[in-house]
Write a structure and sequence with these properties.
Two copies of one chain form a homodimer. By secondary structure, chain A is α+β, with helices and mostly antiparallel strands. Chain A has two domains: 2-256, 4-Layer Sandwich (L-amino peptidase D-ALA esterase/amidase); 264-379, Ubiquitin-like (UB roll) (Roll). Chain A has ten helices and 15 strands. A six-stranded mixed beta sheet of chain A has the order 13-12-11-14-10-15. Chain A has a five-stranded mixed beta sheet with strand order 3-9-8-7-6, with helices on both faces. A four-stranded mixed beta sheet of chain A has the order 1-2-4-5. In chain A, helix 1 (50-60) packs across helix 2, helix 2 (79-97) runs parallel beside helix 3 (118-130) and helix 5 crosses helix 6.
Chain lengths: 383, 383
């Protein structure tokens, strides 16, 4: 049901000809109100794509009436002319929808460093506006795919209200750099500050904790739009949990579709002195190429986990570290533990538990294995 | 000529049976004086192998009479018994050489988390002592290889004095985790503080700036031993430059032999606001898996360079960044520059120049491409 699961939203997805292969490449999501509240989080990369720079400005007003999304080009590192292209896109959408361009967000994904074909994109916006529908969520989700093998949608909610969403991305694994684009919609009656608080809390423990290859995109965008069409204002905790549930669902789908990956690795850091420590350790393990290769080879190589922990500033004593792989404590007290032959790593999901023995905080970070297919996909993309 | 190029040193390399395949695996380097001055730098990993913990203590005294090195096992994450093994190794060498065990450094490389076969190692130390020779440098360099395809030696010096050295390691690329072990020797008459100052300055801009896969070993060790046998005390700058030259030569050999690599990538960061900024940016580029894949595919994908720069805290403005690949400025002012088709990436060495347009500091960091062979070697090693 995607972004049209919540009342008050219409969407469309079409093939505008931005992609050479004729696949769908342009999505439009429209908030028909009565509210136009919105919140957004964007990439922390300091080199930001034009649509990110534009949408950050739009979100400062707290109102978003429509989102234009395209695949087939990231519009990143395209200079002032690229920014003008994004501006023109928003103006075109505003014109055909009768909206204010300052309330139209834009998101793009695809190759860096090439201009978008505006002669195809702008007519596409007009055509997409003509196809807007309360059932358009799936088509919109399809149109933002790049190297994704499947489109990603999720829904949650409470009594009488709904949060829905769509996502694209191969968990930052996609090439050049592909992008995590997410649009969430809700018919709950929540104002912009309320949306912002819920979205930041939800993304902090979901999208911020998937890290398939350590590469931070120039285009990452997560938007949450509220129409208020249900007339219901949920409790803050209940609403945040629904947003978090949709984000967690979509984040898990991103990891599951990461480019070239054959394993999804759930890294649980437990007994840390602080949540920050747990996240730092989880991320360090998630980014260790040698460990990611070992998991690919179904090799329970706990030494690489310890070595990754050792590069962090987290509170721990080396001789108190314990590591389990799929439930077998192969490392105890910083040294050899249970027999590594007991570890069964045949299945796609692999769980690595790192016990820091330093407190009671914890965190979960997801990553993927490193494979020859990843190398192949990312060495052969643009040339 | 390796570690016996300088006067006052003898060395040996033998097959002690630590490696199952019968290859050489034990090296001994002895300083016959008259001086026994030494300095060392060790891995920054907080999970340190037993020989690192031992040798750090030895170096605090500033005197090293001998170094025992083994391949075939890292003696990391082996607990108190593993530390005892290192201690016993030093005592055995001291006994057969008539030295003080507190002046015998130990270095190990190989798989993490397994005990060394002391029943083979200790007799090996005795046998190596019997084979010590002024011409033993090559044999010692051969005995510390793990996945290295070639042994690495280098020599520099001034009038009447010499700095020589040997290294093993595949630029931190080696599996599980392989280790960079380096022993440098000199017959210059320099005391321990002088050696320490020269070694830290030399490694800061050489070994510290090669980063083939971002993975920090538990065992990295670089030792510099002075015999004073030349009777000459070079000027501080001249001596430091000779040590730096040997380190730079060995570092370049490590990158050139990195596991699975098909390209050596020289990353030059120029016009940075500070040297720290330049190093941070160089390292970020060196660790970007997507860029490393692109270089493997001979794809001048400058967007991935910008994206890597964007994750740093260095001083720069995105729209003033320039990037050249093999001399072609494919990115100018943060956007498209010269035609990427002009870039020729057929040769093994690839030069990426990142111009931050923020000052006059610079740094060079070396890395390798990411290849399917790297994945294969590191997913199939211990299982």
């Amino acid at each position: 049901m995607s972004v049209t699961a919540a009342k008050g939203f219409t969407a469309a997805g079409i093939a505008a000809g931005i992609k050479e292969n004729g696949n769908p490449d342009l999505a439009l999501v429209v908030n028909n109100g009565p509210r136009l509240a919105a919140a957004g989080v964007f990439t922390a990369n300091r080199v930001k794509a034009a649509p990110v720079l534009w949408s950050e400005q739009v979100l400062k007003g707290g109102l978003v009436s429509a989102v234009v999304l395209n695949s087939g080009g990231a519009n990143a590192c395209t200079g002032p002319l690229g920014f003008q292209d994004t501006h023109t896109t928003a103006e075109k959408a505003a014109e055909v929808l009768g909206h204010n361009a300052g309330e139209v967000a834009v998101a793009s994904t695809g190759l860096i460093g090439i201009r978008l074909p505006m002669d195809r994109l702008l007519p596409g916006v007009e055509r997409a506006a003509g196809e807007l529908s309360e059932h358009g969520g799936e088509k919109a989700a399809l149109a933002i795919k790049t190297t994704d093998t499947v489109h990603k949608t999720a829904v949650a909610g409470g009594e009488g209200w709904t949060v829905g969403g769509m996502a694209k991305g191969a968990g930052m694994l996609a090439p050049s750099l592909a992008t995590m684009l997410v649009v969430l919609t809700t018919d709950a009656d929540v104002d912009s500050p309320g949306l912002d608080a819920a979205l930041r809390e939800a993304t902090r423990t979901t999208f911020d904790r998937i890290d398939s290859d350590g590469c931070l995109s120039t285009n990452d965008t997560v938007l949450l739009l509220a129409s208020g069409a249900s007339g219901i204002t949920p409790g803050e905790a209940e609403f945040t949990e629904a947003v978090r549930a949709v984000c967690a669902d979509l984040a898990r789908q991103l990891i599951g579709d990461a480019e070239g990956a054959s394993k999804d690795i759930r890294i649980e850091v437990v007994n840390a002195a602080s949540e920050d420590d747990a996240v730092e350790v989880g991320r360090s393990i998630a980014r260790n190429n040698l460990l990611k290769c070992a998991v690919h080879g179904e090799d329970p190589n706990w030494g690489r986990v310890l070595s990754a922990i050792g590069t962090t500033s987290a509170v721990f004593e080396p001789d108190r570290l314990n590591v389990a792989i799929n439930g077998v404590w192969v490392c105890k007290g910083g040294s050899v533990g249970e027999d590594r032959e007991l570890v069964d790593m045949r299945y796609r999901e692999v769980v690595i538990t790192a016990d820091l023995a330093a407190g009671d905080a914890s965190a979960v970070v997801w990553t993927n294995d490193l494979t020859a297919d990843y190398v192949h996909e990312n060495s052969a993309y643009s040339s």
